[in-house]
Amino acid sequence: MTEAGQATPIYGRVALIGLGLIASSMARAMKANGLAGHVAGHAKTPTTREVALELGFCDTVHDTAADAVRDADLVVLAVPVGAMQAVAAEIAPQLKPGATLTDVGSVKQAVVDAVAPHVPQGVHFIPGHPIAGTEHSGPQSGFATLFENRWWLLTPLPDTPAEAITRLRALCEGMGANVDLMDPPHHDLVLAVTSHTPHLIAYTMVGVAEHLRRVSNSEVIKYSAGGFRDLTRIAASDPTMWRDVFLTNKDATLDILGRFTEELFALQRAIRMGDGQMLFDYFTRTRAIRRGIIEAGQDTAAPDFGRAKGSTA
Ligand code: NAP
């Protein structure tokens, strides 16, 4: 039974497959808001299952995914994108008719291709992606407010009953998120711009600094300025998750990287030619984008992202 119970649960029984940052945040948010009657969980390794049991964000933790999903009204796949197909194949025979199956993967078309063929008749598969996260992973890193005022994109397939979408939307909103619907390829292009390519750029820049061996062990760390520090935070993100993102959102990421390279060459040329006007105009336009993000409530305008002075968090 839910401990909080302020609201009528939206789903009687929810099964979370994968118990890392996203799933453990969902479990905590569902409990805090009384959104699920029972939360069952499964993760791949006994260690994670034990930690999840100790932390107590699930009502039950199961040794197999098939056991966890039995009788569930909602099943959430919260594993790396590359693991979705195997998990879907394993749980498919246990899914209850009328149940909803969703996922939280950062790429959508590849998840549709991997999961949809396994979904039995009468089970509603509604792919999803919460645009919320941190560079931390694992069950300890989750928290109940992760999704507050963040977007949760759902990419339903044609013929999905409207009631099933409405119910899943209510769950996401109950966790504090704003919900939008999109088709999977459009999602993948948008996220290639807003998340995937920026991560690749951060990984690259931190890699460049790492290659400057002479300074990497001392000056780069000692004198790390805001820009580099922010990139190192992004570049500390989970290697498995991000490997899978680039392997599965290949076309959109390569498209955006091509555009990025063209812009980079234009700026490189402006620097070489001493074209200050071009640089000034360019930076004025990008500054307006930052303002737009703050006005939309998606980040803080506090200097240095509100970090305490001297903080390295
Ligand atoms: P995470 O903290 O690394 O957790 C991943 C979980 O998946 C772990 O509990 C892991 O179990 C489990 N797992 C992996 N393979 C499995 C399998 N074959 N069967 C069962 N469990 C398996 O990752 P996360 O950040 O929560 O990410 C989960 C999903 O959310 C990914 O698809 C990611 O793309 C998406 N997402 C992430 C973010 C973000 O910022 N992190 C944001 C939005 C969406 P073990 O610990 O036992 O290995």
Question: Which helices and strands occur, and which strands form pairs?
Answer:
Blueprint: E1 11-17, H1 21-32, E2 36-42, H2 46-55, E3 60-61, H3 65-69, E4 74-77, H4 84-91, E5 100-103, H5 109-115, E6 124-130, E7 151-154, H6 162-174, E8 178-181, H7 184-211, H8 213-216, H9 219-222, H10 226-234, H11 239-248, H12 250-273, H13 276-295
Parallel strand pairs: 1-2, 1-4, 2-3, 4-5, 5-6, 7-8
Antiparallel strand pairs: 6-7
Helix pairs in contact: 7-10, 7-12
Bound molecules: NADP nicotinamide-adenine-dinucleotide phosphate.
Helix content: 40-55%
- Written as H for each helix and E for each strand, in order along the chain, the element string is EHEHEHEHEHEEHEHHHHHHH
Distance, first to last CA: 36 Å
* Structural domain count: 2
Count of extended strands: 8
Overall average pLDDT:
92
CATH superfamily grouping of the largest domain: NAD(P)-binding Rossmann-like Domain
- What structural class do helix, strand and pairing data support? alpha/beta
Question: Which oligomerization state do the chains in this entry correspond to?
Answer: single chain
Q: Extract low-pLDDT stretches.
A: 1-5, 309-313
Characterize the overall form.
Answer: globular
Structure annotation, total helices? 13
Main sheet specs? 8 strands, mixed
Instruction: Estimate the strand proportion.
Output: 5-15%
Write out the strand line-up for the largest beta sheet, numbering strands in chain order: 3-2-1-4-5-6-7-8
Small molecules held by this entry: NADP nicotinamide-adenine-dinucleotide phosphate
- CATH fold category name of the largest domain: Rossmann fold
